[in-house]
Design brief:
The chain is about 30% helix and about 15% strand. It has helices at about 5, 20-30, 55-60, 80-85, 115-130, and strands at about 10-15, 35-40, 65-70, 90-95, 110. The chain is globular and about 35 Å long.
């Protein structure tokens, strides 16, 4: 039996915004998911992804939920995130501001801010179903 079939889904939540990370984590924990959080490249000193190395959190996770930002600072900023530059295996979900359409590839799912609990849970389940 594959690990993903045997255990609860494990999302990694990446956002430079502490409050956003914690809100999303609490939503997902209530839904029975195992959750890890990270402030992401640029906010974490010596981030392995920023150094071009593999990340133990990313390897642990079944899906990475990357908050590419909400508001004016997000316009174009998502392109500089190391998390979005590395080859994706369709296990990445981007959460972006409305009007910004970041893509990692044709198969990469994305949702826009503001995101509610049910929408986030469904988007994660959809991303996991693609793998």
């Amino acid at each position: 039996m594959d690990r993903r079939e045997a255990a609860r889904p494990r999302p990694l939540l990446v956002s430079k915004d502490f409050v956003t990370r914690q809100r999303w984590a609490s939503w997902l924990q209530v839904e029975g998911l195992d959750v890890a959080t990270c402030a992401g490249p640029g906010a974490v000193v010596r981030c392995p992804r920023a150094l071009g190395l593999s990340c133990v959190l990313r390897e642990w996770a079944d899906v990475a939920v990357i908050d590419v930002g909400a508001g004016d600072d997000a316009r174009g900023a998502w392109e500089s995130l190391s998390c979005t530059k590395l080859r994706d295996d369709t296990r990445t979900l981007l959460v972006h501001d409305q009007g910004i359409h970041p893509r990692l590839g044709d198969a990469a799912p994305a949702v826009s801010h503001p995101i509610e609990r049910e929408q986030l849970v469904n988007a994660i389940r959809q991303a996991l179903a693609q793998t």
